[in-house]
Amino acid sequence: MGKLLHISASPRGEASESLRIARVFTETYQETHPGDEVEHWDLWDGSLPDFAVGARAKMTVFGGNEPQGAEAEAWDAARRTFERFDSADRLLFSVPMWNASVPYVLKQFIDVVSQPGWIFTVDPVTGYGHQLAGRGKRVAVVYTSAVWGPPLGPEFGSDFQSTFFDDWLRWTGLTDIQDIRFHPTLTGDWDEARRAADARARDIAKVF
Asked: 141 to each of 34, 59, 128, 155, 186, how far by Cα in Å?
Protein backbone atom coordinates (compact mmCIF):
# COMPACT_ATOMS: atom_id res chain seq x y z
CA MET A 1 0.00 0.00 0.00
CA GLY A 2 1.32 3.43 -0.94
CA LYS A 3 0.90 6.77 0.77
CA LEU A 4 0.11 10.21 -0.61
CA LEU A 5 1.03 13.09 1.70
CA HIS A 6 -0.57 16.43 0.84
CA ILE A 7 1.42 19.31 2.35
CA SER A 8 -0.44 22.62 2.31
CA ALA A 9 1.18 26.04 2.55
CA SER A 10 -2.09 27.98 2.20
CA PRO A 11 -3.93 29.33 5.26
CA ARG A 12 -7.03 30.44 3.30
CA GLY A 13 -9.26 27.40 3.71
CA GLU A 14 -12.28 27.33 1.40
CA ALA A 15 -11.12 30.56 -0.29
CA SER A 16 -7.86 28.99 -1.42
CA GLU A 17 -7.46 28.03 -5.07
CA SER A 18 -4.39 25.92 -4.32
CA LEU A 19 -6.35 23.91 -1.74
CA ARG A 20 -9.33 23.56 -4.07
CA ILE A 21 -7.12 22.14 -6.83
CA ALA A 22 -5.40 19.89 -4.28
CA ARG A 23 -8.83 18.51 -3.31
CA VAL A 24 -9.53 17.68 -6.95
CA PHE A 25 -6.18 15.86 -7.03
CA THR A 26 -6.64 13.91 -3.79
CA GLU A 27 -10.23 12.93 -4.57
CA THR A 28 -9.16 11.59 -7.97
CA TYR A 29 -6.18 9.84 -6.38
CA GLN A 30 -8.42 8.13 -3.82
CA GLU A 31 -10.80 6.98 -6.56
CA THR A 32 -7.99 5.52 -8.67
CA HIS A 33 -5.74 4.25 -5.84
CA PRO A 34 -8.32 2.84 -3.38
CA GLY A 35 -5.75 0.89 -1.37
CA ASP A 36 -3.46 3.85 -0.69
CA GLU A 37 -3.41 6.08 2.38
CA VAL A 38 -3.96 9.82 1.93
CA GLU A 39 -2.74 12.20 4.65
CA HIS A 40 -3.21 15.97 4.77
CA TRP A 41 -0.66 18.17 6.54
CA ASP A 42 -1.57 21.81 7.08
CA LEU A 43 1.72 23.60 7.74
CA TRP A 44 -0.21 26.32 9.59
CA ASP A 45 -1.55 23.93 12.23
CA GLY A 46 1.28 24.58 14.71
CA SER A 47 3.03 21.26 14.15
CA LEU A 48 6.21 22.80 12.71
CA PRO A 49 8.85 23.28 15.41
CA ASP A 50 10.63 26.57 15.93
CA PHE A 51 14.17 26.18 14.67
CA ALA A 52 16.14 28.84 16.53
CA VAL A 53 17.74 26.30 18.88
CA GLY A 54 17.65 23.71 16.11
CA ALA A 55 19.96 25.87 13.99
CA ARG A 56 22.57 25.61 16.75
CA ALA A 57 22.02 21.85 16.90
CA LYS A 58 22.58 21.65 13.15
CA MET A 59 25.99 23.28 13.50
CA THR A 60 26.80 20.92 16.38
CA VAL A 61 26.06 17.99 14.07
CA PHE A 62 28.14 19.58 11.31
CA GLY A 63 31.00 19.70 13.79
CA GLY A 64 30.75 15.96 14.35
CA ASN A 65 29.19 16.15 17.82
CA GLU A 66 25.88 15.11 19.38
CA PRO A 67 23.40 17.83 20.37
CA GLN A 68 22.76 18.00 24.11
CA GLY A 69 20.01 19.44 26.31
CA ALA A 70 17.75 21.95 24.54
CA GLU A 71 19.65 21.38 21.30
CA ALA A 72 18.90 17.66 21.46
CA GLU A 73 15.19 18.36 22.03
CA ALA A 74 15.11 20.72 19.06
CA TRP A 75 16.97 18.19 16.90
CA ASP A 76 14.52 15.44 17.87
CA ALA A 77 11.57 17.68 16.95
CA ALA A 78 13.14 18.40 13.58
CA ARG A 79 13.76 14.69 13.05
CA ARG A 80 10.10 13.86 13.74
CA THR A 81 9.08 16.49 11.19
CA PHE A 82 11.44 15.02 8.60
CA GLU A 83 10.19 11.49 9.27
CA ARG A 84 6.59 12.55 8.68
CA PHE A 85 7.67 14.12 5.38
CA ASP A 86 9.75 11.09 4.44
CA SER A 87 7.00 8.59 5.29
CA ALA A 88 5.24 9.01 1.93
CA ASP A 89 6.24 7.78 -1.49
CA ARG A 90 3.90 10.29 -3.15
CA LEU A 91 3.96 13.99 -2.24
CA LEU A 92 1.51 16.75 -3.19
CA PHE A 93 2.29 20.36 -2.30
CA SER A 94 -0.18 23.24 -2.56
CA VAL A 95 1.89 26.42 -2.93
CA PRO A 96 0.32 29.86 -3.41
CA MET A 97 2.53 32.74 -4.51
CA TRP A 98 3.30 35.26 -1.78
CA ASN A 99 5.28 38.34 -2.76
CA ALA A 100 6.72 36.59 -5.83
CA SER A 101 7.87 33.60 -3.72
CA VAL A 102 6.43 31.00 -1.33
CA PRO A 103 4.62 31.47 2.02
CA TYR A 104 7.05 31.77 4.93
CA VAL A 105 5.62 28.67 6.58
CA LEU A 106 6.83 26.58 3.64
CA LYS A 107 10.30 28.08 4.01
CA GLN A 108 10.14 27.15 7.71
CA PHE A 109 9.28 23.57 6.73
CA ILE A 110 12.22 23.49 4.32
CA ASP A 111 14.61 24.86 6.93
CA VAL A 112 13.47 22.32 9.53
CA VAL A 113 13.75 19.18 7.37
CA SER A 114 16.83 20.15 5.32
CA GLN A 115 19.44 18.65 7.59
CA PRO A 116 22.76 16.84 7.05
CA GLY A 117 22.33 13.11 6.72
CA TRP A 118 18.59 13.41 6.16
CA ILE A 119 18.24 15.57 3.05
CA PHE A 120 21.83 16.16 2.01
CA THR A 121 25.48 15.37 2.49
CA VAL A 122 28.43 17.60 1.64
CA ASP A 123 31.77 16.55 0.18
CA PRO A 124 34.57 19.14 -0.13
CA VAL A 125 35.40 17.84 -3.61
CA THR A 126 32.11 16.69 -5.15
CA GLY A 127 29.73 19.05 -3.33
CA TYR A 128 26.24 18.14 -2.21
CA GLY A 129 24.83 14.62 -2.12
CA HIS A 130 21.08 14.26 -2.58
CA GLN A 131 19.73 11.87 0.05
CA LEU A 132 16.22 11.38 -1.33
CA ALA A 133 17.41 10.36 -4.79
CA GLY A 134 16.75 6.91 -6.20
CA ARG A 135 13.95 6.00 -3.82
CA GLY A 136 11.03 6.11 -6.25
CA LYS A 137 9.34 9.11 -4.66
CA ARG A 138 7.10 11.22 -6.90
CA VAL A 139 6.05 14.84 -6.41
CA ALA A 140 3.19 17.00 -7.68
CA VAL A 141 3.05 20.73 -6.93
CA VAL A 142 0.08 23.07 -7.28
CA TYR A 143 1.38 26.57 -8.03
CA THR A 144 -1.14 29.43 -7.90
CA SER A 145 -1.01 33.20 -8.27
CA ALA A 146 -3.54 35.94 -8.94
CA VAL A 147 -1.45 38.78 -10.41
CA TRP A 148 1.70 37.25 -11.92
CA GLY A 149 1.31 34.95 -14.90
CA PRO A 150 3.69 33.47 -17.50
CA PRO A 151 2.56 35.74 -20.38
CA LEU A 152 3.04 38.97 -18.41
CA GLY A 153 6.03 41.29 -18.18
CA PRO A 154 8.06 42.20 -15.08
CA GLU A 155 5.68 45.03 -14.19
CA PHE A 156 3.38 42.27 -12.88
CA GLY A 157 6.07 40.62 -10.78
CA SER A 158 8.46 37.70 -11.09
CA ASP A 159 8.31 33.97 -10.44
CA PHE A 160 10.57 33.13 -7.51
CA GLN A 161 7.87 30.72 -6.36
CA SER A 162 8.37 27.72 -8.63
CA THR A 163 12.03 28.48 -9.36
CA PHE A 164 12.88 28.39 -5.66
CA PHE A 165 10.73 25.39 -4.76
CA ASP A 166 11.66 23.27 -7.78
CA ASP A 167 15.32 23.93 -7.06
CA TRP A 168 14.90 22.77 -3.46
CA LEU A 169 13.08 19.60 -4.53
CA ARG A 170 15.83 18.70 -6.99
CA TRP A 171 18.50 19.49 -4.39
CA THR A 172 16.95 16.88 -2.10
CA GLY A 173 17.07 14.31 -4.90
CA LEU A 174 13.36 14.49 -5.79
CA THR A 175 13.38 14.86 -9.56
CA ASP A 176 10.14 13.13 -10.63
CA ILE A 177 8.08 16.33 -10.44
CA GLN A 178 4.79 17.34 -12.07
CA ASP A 179 3.35 20.82 -11.74
CA ILE A 180 -0.24 22.01 -11.85
CA ARG A 181 -0.56 25.73 -12.48
CA PHE A 182 -3.31 28.25 -11.89
CA HIS A 183 -2.26 31.75 -12.99
CA PRO A 184 -5.42 33.48 -14.27
CA THR A 185 -3.96 37.03 -13.80
CA LEU A 186 -6.13 40.01 -12.94
CA THR A 187 -7.86 40.12 -16.33
CA GLY A 188 -7.79 36.45 -17.34
CA ASP A 189 -10.59 33.93 -17.66
CA TRP A 190 -10.72 32.45 -14.16
CA ASP A 191 -13.30 29.78 -15.05
CA GLU A 192 -11.23 28.52 -17.97
CA ALA A 193 -8.06 28.59 -15.84
CA ARG A 194 -9.86 26.53 -13.18
CA ARG A 195 -11.06 23.99 -15.72
CA ALA A 196 -7.55 23.61 -17.14
CA ALA A 197 -5.95 23.25 -13.69
CA ASP A 198 -8.57 20.75 -12.54
CA ALA A 199 -8.15 18.66 -15.71
CA ARG A 200 -4.39 18.54 -15.27
CA ALA A 201 -4.77 17.65 -11.57
CA ARG A 202 -7.06 14.74 -12.46
CA ASP A 203 -4.78 13.51 -15.25
CA ILE A 204 -1.70 13.47 -13.00
CA ALA A 205 -3.52 11.96 -10.01
CA LYS A 206 -4.78 9.00 -12.04
CA VAL A 207 -1.28 7.81 -12.90
CA PHE A 208 0.58 9.17 -9.86
From this structure: 21, 31, 24, 25, 22
SS3 assignment, position 69: helix
The pLDDT tens digits for 78-108 are: 999 999 999 999 999 999 999 999 999 999 9
Tell me, what's the pLDDT at 194? 97
140 sits in which H/E element: strand 138-144
101 annotated ligand-binding residue: no
Segment 44-71 shows an average pLDDT of 91
Q: What is the mean pLDDT of the chain?
A: 96
Residues 3 and 89: their CA atoms lie apart, in Å, by 6
Which residue type does 137 have? K
Question: Is 158 annotated as ligand-binding?
Answer: no
Residue 94 in marked binding region? no
Q: Decide: residue 8, CB within 10 A, 0-12 exposed, 13-18 middle, 19+ buried.
A: buried
Q: Does residue 121 sit in helix, strand or coil? A: strand
HSE-CB of 33 using CA atoms within 13 angstroms: 20
- Say what the pTM is: 0.96
